[in-house]
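From the shared-data thread, chain only:
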Amino acid sequence: MEPVPEDWQRAIVVAAHPDDIEYGVAAAVARWTDQGKDVRYVLATSGEAGIAGLSPAECGPLREQEEIAAAAVVGVTEVEFLGHRDGTLVDGPPLRRDLAAVIRRHRPELVVTLHFGRTWRPGALNSADHRALGSAVLDAAADAGNEWTFPDLSEPPWTPRWVAVMAPGASHAVDVTGTVDRAVASLVQHRRYLEALDTTPVDQQAQDVIDMVIGRIDGFDAERAVGFELFTFAG
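Structure, as tokens:
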């Protein structure tokens, strides 16, 4: 188990919905921003279909504000929402085009995204949005460096060095022993969303989830770690 490379200065984290990043990846982000790295968030949707009892018009702006607050806890000040419709992401040219444009615009060395396998575990289906988004991110990382795939994009081509996918069966890991508390605090910012999920107090929900997701990883010397599958592109 190798560490995720840290000889870079700029990364973007791409997710389908507000709150996705806070379920583990935020701990790694906190470590990186503490090192002085520039990390930015990109959300394909505003999560407007995500809170029962709230209309999309009410829910979307609320969830955007919760995400911005969550990002600030781990040192991220730039959060971009692409405006795709929550629950309807499709891994195809329109989404890939928007993601390729994002990569060209921000010019990251590292692109981070989340698990997009069919299931979380046997019998637990992963979200259709998660499955579509993760696959599209991998393709868009290649598309961004090809000037002919989407020739109408105004930004010059750019190919990141790596894409890191937080996933089971990781090949690489990040030591987050010192940033777990901030990961919890970041997730707590999604207070209205978490209140709709469970009657357990939000602070306890956040602590329980982070303790479940972030722990020891076999073969990696850290008390608490986040695992990633690492894909190499440029260099």
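The radius of gyration is 17 Å.
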